Amino acid sequence: xxxxxxxxALVLSLxxxxxxxxxxxxxxxxxxxxxxxxxxxxxxxxxxxxxxxxFPVDTSNLxxxxxxxxxIISKAAQISESAEVDAxxxxxxxxxxxxxxxxxxxCGKIKNKVLKLQTDxxxxxxxxxxxxxxxxxxxAAQQKKLATNVALDVKSKGQTCTGINFAxxx
Length: 170
Prior knowledge:
Layout: H1 2-20, H2 34-37, E1 42-43, H3 47-54, H4 67-85, H5 90-94, H6 99-129, H7 136-155, E2 160-161
Antiparallel strand pairs: 1-2
Helix pairs in contact: 3-6, 4-6, 6-7
């Protein structure tokens, strides 16, 4: 009897210790190159779902996103912006292109904007959930831009999109 009481006490004390242990944020993402996480190629109409598949974050508990995942998401937003505006990016690729090639590249650029904006919205939402204040205005502005570009992507549903080969990694 004494032995079973001691075992019960030991089990209860171990469970109390494990319940009080800090919760370690799970890492869901791995660092990738732009060409690996890009959603620009393919077909228009589902860019947001494609982005969410590339960055599978538990949006029901953004406060638990790890610092390393937040860094990957932040870097992806920055690289996607660079892929749009920097040398060798979409804006350069669109110069001098006409016809169906231009249409496909513009479609890819819209999908890239969805990538850029969704990762930036995720970044802001995570930071807000983790206690950073004063992000409401920036978040609202990015969500509005995201909604505009998602609508453009959906409007072009079925259209072939062309991506670019761009150096950069998250």
